[in-house]
Structures are given as C-alpha cells and as structure tokens.
Amino acid sequence: MTSPIFVAIDTPDLDRARAIAARVRNHVGGIKLGLEFFSANGRHGIKEMAELGLPIFLDLKFHDIPNTVGKAIQALRPLEPAILTVHAAGGRAMMEDAKAAAPTGTKVVAVTVLTSLDSSDLSSIGLEPNPHGQVERLTALAREAGLDGVVCSGNEVAAAKKLWAGGFFVVPGVRPADSNSGDQKRVMTPRKALDSGASILVIGRPITQAEDPDLAARSIEATL
Ligand SMILES: O=c1ccn([C@@H]2O[C@H](COP(=O)(O)O)[C@@H](O)[C@H]2O)c(=O)[nH]1
C-alpha cells in the first residue's frame, strides 16, 4: 500500500533536498515542496526533484486576483504536479480559475485555516475565533468552485469530510506524540489524523530534522 505521508522538504538547498528525499523515499508516498524550495530553485529544482520518481506536491499557496493566479498556474503546467495549493480566502472565482488553469491530472486543493493559527490569531485578523466554522465555510466554497479538496488541521478534518464526502483532505500540523510542535498550533498525531479522515499527511521537520530521517519516517509509518 502507498504511504499516505508526503514529506515536506523545506530547504533552499537542492542537494540537501535530494539527499533527504533519497533517504526516505521507501517510506513516503510523495514529496511536498513549498515556497522556500521554489524561491531558491524554481521550476528547474522541481524538475530535478521529480526525477526521483515520487509524486510532487507543489505547495505555493496562491492567493491573488483570479487572472494572476490562473496565469501563474498556467506557467507551471509543464511540471504536472500531483497536487497544487491555493488559499480558499482568495474566493470562488480565483479557485475556479486556478482549477481551469491546472493540468487535468493535478489535484488543486485550497488551504482553509493555516495550522499555525489558533483562536487568538483568528480573532486578531478579524475572523471568528473557532477554526471549525471558518474551515467548514471555506470547504463548502472550495467544493462549489470545483476544486479537488482542502487543507486543514486534523482537528477539523472530520467536520470537513462530513460536508464533502468525496473530497481530498490534506492534513499538515502532524506531530508524533513525542515531537516538538514548533510554530504549529493545531496539531495531531499521524494515526489520529488518518483515523479522523485525512487523505494524506504532510510531515516535515519531525522527519527532515531528525538525526536519521529514514528511521524517523519508518517509525511514523509503523504507527499508521
Ligand atoms: O495549514 C498549513 C498549510 C501548509 N503547511 C505546510 O506543511 C508543512 C509542515 O511542515 P512541518 O515541518 O511538519 O511543520 C510546511 O511545509 C508548511 O508550509 C502547514 O504547515 N500548514
């Protein structure tokens, strides 16, 4: 069975990214590359990482006017990523244009509420303090816009799935029981996140910053 773990390789260093991916490749289902890696290495870096043969999740979290997001995604079409992210807060028209611009085989998923935000952060930006309400509202909007799924924390995934049984649910903020949360505020263990309805688990630092990333990935896999 393919592993539900996508390892988040957040580094500007292409050689380091390649080395980590090569070490963990047998225990993960794909590689997630985000802003840090893309800003340093661009499309060339993504192509290099794709050479490893694992699905690529391109997590650029687009959030702009519909025309700009559509054109940016069109420019990425040759990379054919397995998964691509936009912010649901960009609105329905932006999500529709994002989906229309993406390659047919690419899942476009919308970030609902970042896992680094808690109730007081939400209040501070003028949103209702309970993340559940915001996740549910944006999940319904992403579904209406024709996207493939959403990104939310393990705490909200069951509620989101109730609204969208056929959706694809990406869960970051995943931490093994003994692991440091770092800047993540809404966290859950890998096993519990899967049991709650995650389609895939995004796990970065608990694997990439471990002394032995291969052992860390294997140990997490063993809990699933
Ligand atoms: O709400 C979100 C959306 C995306 N992310 C990304 O996932 C990884 C998590 O890395 P860790 O080291 O496991 O914390 C990272 O690349 C984020 O950009 C997220 O954390 N939360």
From TrEMBL:
Catalysed conversion reaction: orotidine 5'-phosphate + H(+) = UMP + CO2
CDD domains for this protein: OMP_decarboxylase_like (cd04725)
Broadest EC class assigned to this enzyme: lyase
Active site residues according to the UniProt entry: 61 (proton donor)
SUPFAM superfamilies, alphabetized: Ribulose-phoshate binding barrel
Subunit structure of this chain's protein: Homodimer.
Listed name of the protein: Orotidine 5'-phosphate decarboxylase
